[in-house]
Design a protein that fits this description.
The chain is an alpha+beta fold and about 290 residues long. The chain has 3 domains: about 130 residues, no CATH class; about 120 residues, no CATH class; about 35 residues, no CATH class. It has 10 helices and 10 strands. The strands form 4 sheets. Strands 1-8-5 form a 3-stranded antiparallel β-sheet. The chain has a 3-stranded antiparallel β-sheet with strand order 4-7-6, with no helix packed on it. Strands 2-3 form a two-stranded antiparallel ribbon. Strand 2 and strand 3 form a beta hairpin. Helix 2 crosses helix 8 and helix 5 runs antiparallel to helix 6.
Amino acid sequence: MSKVSTLVDCSDSEAVECLNDFVESIQNEISVGGMIPFTIPADVIAQLVKNAKTMFQKSYEDFTEEMFLILPESEIQKKRFNKGIAKLKSDDNEDKKVIDKKAIKDTRGAFMLPEKVVSVVGVYEIGGFEGEAGWGGMLLGKHTGDISLQNLLYQNAYDRSLAIAADTTAYYVATESFLDISRQIFQHPITFRYNRLTNNLRFLGELPRKDVIVDVLVAIPDCDMYNDDLFRRYVIADCKANLGRVLGTFNYQLPGNISINVDQIANEGTSEKESILQEIKDMSGSWYIMTF
């Protein structure tokens, strides 16, 4: 097993093979197919790949996919989910209040999400007036019969008053816009925090009572990640910047008194990295940035 393989799930042979192939291609790119007699060790490139992956997942929307997870009511009703919060207790030796160390470890409202979850966009309780889940068929729902699009159109479709049908369609669009705003105002909010390092989703304040839908962004498979041109360019640029830093530490000269333009290598890598980061920033929508 190579050192490269230790940076991915070793049980996933496809992921290991993809990483090894990607690292090898980066080495060939840096050495121009072996024409330049130096390159970067495979384990160093693999570490740079890992660092770049973390950065891209935070800032590049193509590196995550939106998915919906369900937190079943059976988990919510468990005792550990509803335990009390950390509290103060009287010190036996002195007349003062101290934090109960056992209470600090309480897991009230905490749920561990899968490791691949990068961010939590929203949390919705089924039937709790959250988003569309609790509004169907109600006064402010989309399927209320009195303002359905079919009723508005068909009442004028057969009496040659299509102009009125056009007006009612505009009325329907305006009404739907109003109802959408109303749903956002009246929906019962669920306050939460998600930590990417621990994958811990914690509910704050009032806990849900029924099934909960969690809207999440999940990291794409590594093999798909390596096919992205921006990611490949960024890793190559990062390798050049690090290679220039290492070569600049020593007085290195090729046979035949051929010197190495270290500054050009380092500047090329740094400039390319800045260009890619700016390109990602320009492409990323504000909705994606708001999730982090």
